[in-house]
Amino acid sequence: MKGSQDFAADPRNATVKVYLSGALVPRDEARVSIFDAGFVLGDGVWEGLRLHKGGLCFLDRHLDRLYAGASAIDLDIGMTRAELTEALWTTLRANGMQDGVHIRLMVTRGLKKAPNQDPRHAIGPATVVIVAEWKQPSPDIVAQGLSLATSSIRCSPADMFDPLLARRHVRYAAEFA
Asked: Which of 112, 91, 120, 105 is CA-nearest to residue 38?
């Protein structure tokens, strides 16, 4: 069954440079530690952006959401909006990208002393990763379309998990540790 995430293979993606905490590295050399908070417990935020005809679509909205999400979990990205925007453009320029590009911008809390959930055990700055790839929809999807359905079941309603409440809990717990 075809899905909305299916895309046409593009051989140029094999040699893209990835932004990894301030450095541009070849795709096949991009690595993070197994002690990175993003790997250990998914502690981070991310956004998916599109580069279309030389412009980053809805960049301000994506950055608003990224920084709001980081704030909700008390994660210091370690870069201003202007610095992060420049890192995006640096990555795109390094790869000669102008159009038809999907960007995954990921920020984790960074390296941890040990693989546990306590955010106070982060030992360095946030890990910032930007992966830009040429991605166009699968030709089958373009030709045949997709079947969609809307579920009546809501996932994770606010009364089940509130990130702001979790943030207050972490601060409260830290005061009594």
From this structure: 112
